[in-house]
Amino acid sequence: MSGPRPGTDWTADEMMTVAAARQLRDGTACFVGIGLPSTAANLARVTHAPNLVLVYESGCLGAKPDRLPLSIGDGVLADTADAVVSVPEVFNYWLQPGRIDVGFLGAAQLDRYGNLNTTVVGDYATPAVRLPGAGGAPEIAASCGEVVVIVRQNRRTFTERVDFVTSVGYGTGAGDRERLGLRGGGPRLVITDLGVLEPDPVSCELTLTRLHPGVTREQARAATGWDLAVAEPLTTNDPPTAHELAVLRALEATRHGTSADRPQAPGPTV
Amino acid sequence: MAKLVPLADAVAELVHDGDVVALEGFTHLIPFAAGHEIIRQRRRELTLARMTPDVIYDQLIGAGCARRLVFSWGGNPGVGSLHRFRDAVQHAWPGPLELEEHSHAGMANRYVAGASGLPFAVLRGYTGTDLPRHTANIRPVDCPFTGETLTAVAALRPDVTVVHAQRADRAGNVQLWGITGVQKEAVLAAHRSLVTVEEIVAELTPVPGQVVLPGWAVTAVAEVPGGAHPSYAQGYSVRDNDFYRAWDAVSRDRDTFRAWLDRHVHRAGAAA
């Protein structure tokens, strides 16, 4: 987590989370992963989108947590959900037929067509870094109406080629999703700590369309491992409002206080 | 009819070296105490299956119980990496670990096929990803009605599935609620099953959203209060998020991990 931007009272991560939250439309159903996606979705629900439907892969449909969960299976998600269904059901009945409007994903690597890697860095058999793996992401990327990716922008993450295709964005380019038979729309937005990328309407290549306040196009291009296309005109996002920041910080504070009421139990001390 | 037995006896009888073992639980109701008993009884060469191998699988892998891992997401939820899992994959410590990996949708459907007595399940999944290159258990299949190409995944039939639940009655009927994950499918897919429970009661009072596993579909039930800690049992405990955070530092170093294992598992003795 970086400190506040010079001349501002908010951090790059806060700007990224606020920018992502603003993209969620009230009344839509959103498949949420833990971490930044969950924070952004809950921020949206508390600010402009009170009827946003949060779907967690643990089977919690319509969860309305009053504090940020640490995992996708915290009790607060089940306690506040409209329905709690089994894991086969959440994937087979809810995600697969296209009932979820927006899928919210992160990634360790991303390429110019929005293909995502969360499996390994390096060779599969002898990886430099073994990552957690696919989880729900391949089918979220395939079947949601659209995908929003939240990821910090740097050359290690924004790579010319991903080392492993865990989840398909636009594959090798225009028309590839249709050829593969993927029914969802694919990545509509990639929101980073520097700005926003969107697919070119013809080529599907990710193009820088917006910067966060105080960021230059040169910074964004330098943080990208391919020759990043830039839209004209390139616009600038509004900074976080005082209300957005206050709500976000109040939410973040709840994540650190969740275990005060836990029963006494042996901790992992040595 | 499920037998009511002490945990140590159940593990001794039902979990054998070389077995395919699934300890399921989707963040909620993870059978930690049973996993610790498997470590204490020094089972070896296990194929561990689970959608979300988290801290208990990190412990089993670091303790040298596993030869192979079949999974879809291996991490410490909300915290980061599983360091014992990574050490096994990247440095073969304490031994090499073969991987077979899937997506959540694929793993869930593999259990559904196993529970259904079918050789495979069908889904829209994996298409265009690199996952099918690395396992023979993901194959394209043509729909006989529409001709559309879909994805088939092979059934997963563990030798033994272990889950934790809130309670059981004296006939071994098991009741669980809250986030029920894939536990029902994993139990019904397995050749043998062990359920640890928070308590054994005279009568099971209905609870909204419950899953009931009839006693005649379960091999053994062991009463292990707190047997899901640091995971939780809705209605009995809350998730010990501090433990999951603290595990990151404990598991990062081999010696620290071994000291923890010795103190909290080997010398702790069976909970029941």
UniProtKB/TrEMBL annotation, chain B:
Record InterPro entries: CoA_trans_fam_I, NagB/RpiA_transferase-like
Source organism, top-level taxon: Bacteria
Record bears the keyword Transferase: yes
PANTHER family, A to Z: ACETATE COA-TRANSFERASE YDIF (PTHR43293), CHOLESTEROL RING-CLEAVING HYDROLASE IPDB SUBUNIT (PTHR43293:SF3)
Coiled coil location: none
GO molecular function: transferase activity
Keyword rRNA-binding tagged: no
Swiss-Prot/TrEMBL keywords: Transferase
Natural source organism: Micromonospora antibiotica
Protein name: CoA transferase subunit A
Species classification: Bacteria, Bacillati, Actinomycetota, Actinomycetes, Micromonosporales
UniProt record similarity statement: Belongs to the 3-oxoacid CoA-transferase subunit B family.
Gene3D superfamilies: 3.30.30.40, Glutaconate Coenzyme A-transferase
